[in-house]
Structure formats: structure tokens, C-alpha cells
Amino acid sequence: MGDIITFSCKKCGYEMKAPVGVGLASFNPTVIGELLHGEEREEWKTLSDKGVLERCLGEQVMASCEHCGGLSNIYCVSGQTAERKYLWGNKCPQCGRELTLLKDIQAITCPACAGSLLDAKRTGLWD
């Protein structure tokens, strides 16, 4: 079960609610395939259909874009074959560039004012 996190900035009033973590379907290949798009979906489906993925996990994560400065909540899928590791879904919804995944949700800088760290509080649960 994942958490609903409310991110807020005490300096400028910015606020964002976002699901973070894994749910019951995070290991389900059908759900993962439906949530990926375009070339990433095709690449994932090819590897999944061949049965070569040794690990695969879909999760809701926070991410930032170094290019446009956006803060996003994305569905990101990590996978691994014997030869390589994969990461799908980590594209900025604003500019399409690769995102940086933010592992420590307590250390996210406000995207609106860049003046302080966002306060991250658990305000609910999701599946």
C-alpha cells in the first residue's frame, strides 16, 4: 500500500498532493503494460512477452526535471534482464526530458520559489 503525501511550502504557499509508493498492482504485468506509453510500452511488452525480465516493479515516485524545473509525480517502472537494467516512465510531462527520481521526499526543494524545502506530510493511503 502506498501513501498520499501532501507537499507544501511555508514560504510561498505552494501545495501538491501525490501518491507515493507501491500498490497491489505494482507487480502485475497487465497493469504495468497499461500504464506505460509509446516506445516504452512496446519495449517493456517485448521483454515481458519473451519472459526475460528477472525483476519488474511499478511505483509512484516524485521526480524533478533539471531542464524546466518541474516537480512531477510519475508512475515509474524498473526492470532487469540478465544483461541490463531498465527504467521506464521517467520522462518530464512538461518538456519530455529525462527526470531525476527523488528518493528522499523529505528533501525536495519548492519548485515555485526554490526558497525552502517542501514540508511532506502523509495525509492518506492508496492501493
List the helices and strands and how they pair.
Blueprint: E1 2-8, E2 15-20, H1 29-35, H2 38-50, E3 55-64, E4 71-80, E5 85-88, E6 100-102, E7 119-126
Antiparallel strand pairs: 1-2, 1-7, 3-4, 3-6, 4-5
Provide a descriptive summary of the structure in words.
Helix content is 16%, strand content 38%. The longest helix has 13 residues, at 38-50. It contains 2 helices and 7 strands, in the order E-E-H-H-E-E-E-E-E. The chain is globular and about 50 Å long.
Percent of residues in helices? 10-25%
Q: What structural class do helix, strand and pairing data support?
A: alpha+beta
Sheet with the most strands: spatial strand order: 5-4-3-6
What's the overall average pLDDT, rounded? 93
Q: Strand-and-helix sequence, N→C? A: EEHHEEEEE
Strand fraction: 35-45%
Low-confidence stretches: none
Discrete helix count: 2
Largest sheet: 4 strands, antiparallel
Determine the N-to-C terminus distance: 5 Å
Round the Cα radius of gyration to an integer and report it.
16 Å
Q: What is the overall shape?
A: globular
The beta-strand count equals: 7
Characteristic terms for this protein:
127 residues, alpha+beta, 4-stranded antiparallel sheet, 3-stranded antiparallel sheet, 2 helices
